Amino acid sequence: MKKTLFYIFLALLACLQDLYAQDSLLTNLDSVYVTDVKLKNYSTGRTVLQLSDTLTQKNRPLLTNTLNFNTPIYFKENGLGMVSSPSFRGTTASQTAVVWNGININSQFNGQLDFNTVNAAAYDEIAVRGGGGSVVYGTGAIGGSIHLNTQLDFKNRQSHHLFLQYGSFDTRDARYQFKMGTETYSLSLALAHNSSANDYAYPNDGKNLNGEFENTALNVGLGFKLNAKHSLRFFSELYDGERHFSLIRASETRTKYDDLNSKNLLEWEYKFSDFTSVTRVAYLDEHYKYFGNLSSANYSFGSAKTIIGKYDLTYRLSRRLHLNTVLTNTYTSGEGSSLGINNRNIFSAAVLMKHQLKNGLDYELGFRKEITGNYESPFLFSVGATKAFSEYFSLNLSASRNFRIPTYNDLYWSSAGNPDLLPENSLQGQLGTKITIANFNIDLTGYYNSVTEMIRWLPVSDGVWRPRNEEEVRIYGAEAIANWSQKINAHSLNIYGTYAYTISENAQTGNQLIYVPFHKATAGLDYDFKRFNASLQSVYVGEVFTRSDNNSRYNLDAYAVVNFNLGYSFGNKKAFELGGRVNNVFDAEYQSVENRWMPGRNFSMYLNLKL
Amino acid sequence: MKINKLALFALLGVFILNSCSNDDDALEPLPEGDYTDGFFVLNEGNFGANNSTLSYVNYNLSTINNDVFNQVNGTSLGDTAQSLIFEDDLAYVVLNASNTIEVFNRYTLEKVGTIDENLANPRYSAIENDRLYVTNWGDGTIATDDYVAVFDINTLEFITAISVEEGPEKIVSEDDKLYVALQGGFSFNNKVVVIDANSNTVLSTITVGDVPSALEVEDDFLWVNSSGLPSYSGSETAGAIYKININTNDVVVYEFDDSSQHPSNLEIEDDMVYYTLGGSVYKFNTSATELPATSQFELSEITSLYGFEVEDNYIYAADALNYTEGGKVVVYDLNGEVIADFTSGIAPNGFYFN
């Protein structure tokens, strides 16, 4: 199957020869549409880090990799390609919201997203927004949110982008993007496939057994400008992944996990007088199968269908003052092997306001309240302000209350679920500054976050585990995001990096949470000279505790990993590029989860074609 | 060969007679090694994390030494250590998630070998006639693939598999026979299977109360602790303790009154039957006809009882706490006074006395 798909890509490549004559034309930024407009308009006082698709191309396609090497988010990865969960600003895995074209897609079952079940190549733009965002993005936006966006270009052009990579451990990475449009309609199509035998060697003999995976993602965006007042847009994604879970010993029982997810969103935008109304209907289908023993056909499963209706009305009181109400109804019908069938309905109302004063002060306010029979919902708020003191210096300030609602597993797990759970609650504030000097840019942020009513599964009696609202966590830290670029003649240099210092401690014991490093840093460098381009990507992760009593004997060592990329472009528009990559150049021996080794030095080569 | 076997039977006889105290030091001319004069705590660790460990506590109860197997051998014990059994100089540890049995010298902890085939979800083991009998759940979701695997304790070679009903858990040996409690695995069962160690076949099946979670053989009697169906089963039943005469099959049942009563951790020591119920320790004489009306004492230092043992004049209790840090081990005297407590490895589930 995976081979077939790979050859389909090769066939596509052959077909493209005919289209080679096509010229890629100018880009008009005004005609670019990203549906998650809230990300731009309602992130006042916060930092949003944009990751371009050229950056995702320099990383493995699984989303963990791009984010791990380019953002302050820490990842706990059970071996390459295996289960991967984030800790964003010291929070837990279900306290990072993942937002697809403005829609929250965290799993209904466990409230998180496994970042190795997302193929980053399916998106035009990935953005990382630090800090609470529940007023706009709902449950889980406590540490921050990750935004996966499709971009629609309303301009007369057609473009193809094909990227094929083959590397160590029989790893195949194929990405194809097609965009076409006019001033009135736009089509965006992205198809990505990734597979790997993933049988890398461990430092102490042995190798990664039963670690193979493959996945395919298709993402389609379609937009029509019907007239000056009406627009229709449609976004759809299909993800099909099969992943075996690696073993530590050959004698262990072999298992695997299959995902089949689809996301669909239809938008109708209507502009009249000083109003813009956007009506959205989304349908999300989440389906997994877990095979606990590959030698039998038995599996357990979870399946959830969610229908979201959203009405979003913006009123422009003036050019500088906007009011926005968002009404959302989310209906989920979910079932699973240990869950039975359960439906839940959540209605929410949010009011947002954004005001841009003439003196360079922008501020925003937001409120949200949910109504549901499932849990007692807190009143959420958000305030943010940015003041630009000069073109070199601005200050950011924000505060918010955010939440993470109990999941299907928390509420309905057979004989263990607890229907009386409250949402996890986060009250936080942050202060930041942005400094721009010539080609140098730095965002510095300090934050404090108090998370209460943390849901924790603990044994009660007879070996039964049940979730309870139990813990309190105090988190504070600092984040820096910087970049610098310089062009001299044919030389172009771009250097970027992040650093995070994180204290995340259990309020009762004062201990740092397990798998939250005090220090994490990333650094990247891109250098272009004529037809050559070279880049480095690197990550440093400090020591982490693996025991909640902070017994340092079992700490995981700090590690640094560096990847190197070299490419050469051909053709009169540099349309073809051939290149190679060395991952983990210094052959670091490292693990981000106890007893789960990551690969040593490995290689790949690629072909990059843009028409 | 025959003479050897006889000698072994003689040794085994002595061993079994003493097995409840496991006080077989008398057999040895003072064993050599750093771990001769104390007991082990087996720490399960987290499923899938390969962090099972062995802790050692000297009998003077002064300190605990965690992770001793790793210290000696430079390698992890494995994943989800379920149980341990001693035979002569060796210890056999069943590792549930690794599907292995790690074999090492009980006094020096030096690794001797590993059994890594013919095990599927292994749980507990017993030894009879130089053979190691290991209960296996097979695939937890399949009711019909459960078995008792038989290995040669010297060569560690697989001999045969004896198919049994769902959920074989604890196993004990006595007089060429093995008694296997069918606790039920991921489901619930209510039987004890008797296996003939000579033919490796099932001799008979005895029906007992729901969820037989512990069993012991003492002086011609098989004691079975049936915990009863838990509340989450939807049809909760009270526990019961069965005393079965292994020669006549006569049964005495000690029944608990209330369906919410789920006794566990049955142990027999010096003619007394010990068990725990709702965080308290109870005991009664093996010849008593009724259950005790009151408890001996409450295990008030323990929040989540995960391991329990009575040995000579002490009661050993293990607390798994939150499973993300070292557990707690508390040593009580028979009146419930705390003699010592230690921080062990993650999820301590058993005590084994050298």
Automatic annotation (TrEMBL), chain A:
One of its GO terms (biological process) is siderophore transmembrane transport. Its main location: membrane. Residues 1-21 form the signal peptide. PROSITE patterns: PROKAR_LIPOPROTEIN (PS51257), TONB_DEPENDENT_REC_3 (PS52016). Residues 166-585 form the TonB-dependent receptor-like beta-barrel domain. Keywords: Cell outer membrane, Membrane, Receptor, Signal, TonB box, Transmembrane, Transmembrane beta strand, Transport. It is a multi-pass membrane protein. InterPro entries: Beta-barrel_TonB, Beta-barrel_TonB_sf, Plug_dom, Plug_dom_sf, TonB-dep_rcpt-like. Gene3D superfamilies: TonB-dependent receptor, beta-barrel domain, TonB-dependent receptor, plug domain. GO terms for molecular function: siderophore uptake transmembrane transporter activity. It is found in: Cell outer membrane. Pfam families: Plug, TonB_dep_Rec_b-barrel. Residues 63-144 form the TonB-dependent receptor plug domain. Belongs to the TonB-dependent receptor family. This is TonB-dependent receptor.
